Sequence to fold (325 residues):
Amino acid sequence: MTTFTTALIHEAKRRIKPTVLRTPLIHSPPLSRLCGCQVYLKMECWQKCGCFKIRGVTNFLLHHQNEALQSGVATASSGNHALALAYGARMMRLEHVHIFLPEGADPAKISQIRQYGVEPVVEGKNFYETFDIARSYSAKNGTCYAHSNADPQVIAGQGTIGLEIADDLPDVDAVIVPVGGGGLISGIAAALKDVQNSTAIIGAEPEASPGAYQSLQEGKPCERIALKPSVADGLSGGFSPLPFKIAYPLIREIALASEDEIVAAMTAFFHQEQLVVEGGAAVGLAVLLARKADLQNKKVVLVVTGRNIDSKRFLSIIGQNGAKL
Fold:
């Protein structure tokens, strides 16, 4: 496996530029008033296939193009990485794509994966079981495995978000990044620290899946932790070793959001900015609204990671909280 360096992020920026959107950074006056700081939204929810994951997947597939064409590609995912892989595989006309999803995966994501011509295998009671099944399949069949967060090329692709933030808002004080397996925050942190060292990198994750929080507390990657159900199911899982190694010295803190706080943030996005976002995309706003990070009057970027949520589920979730904002 390639050793990760920040040079890979700059290479990824050039590699994916023709096929991946450069998403806008938008100032939000209403959310700024609610949060007591200047809130900017990095609109990855407007990215192709509705999530940031297309950056890492595209960079991975282009880097491993010959191998993927010859042997096929496989992955395990809770949803968005799989969706991005299906999209990227269609773009590159890959014929053998094997996607494994856990039971209970969002129906909207399953439907979109099928629309890109891949029939996913839904197997495993949780992400860990699904991951083991997918890795076993890949090893047995000799396919190229596209890890959702612990591959240098995937991390480099996600890191291009950090380069764009630095270009658009050079004096940003803090960037709040949703954390699942750690590929996104490690890439963004490495990119920002490479071009401007003063920006605080803050992770946000659900209390139901505190892998990054536990990892920073213990000083080692907590890759497999006890998980609880969450509206931010896309962040379910522990902190992988490679992202931990990259991000540990660069992250200021990890803030945890309760389920009620995540729902309140999804509702705020909808009412204040007319944005439909999935639970995992709302955890950054959740910790900011709850004042769980000391950022009063600072310039803060929230990475809004995705919009792929079933409409009925979204309306049901915010319906629980709609009268509060």
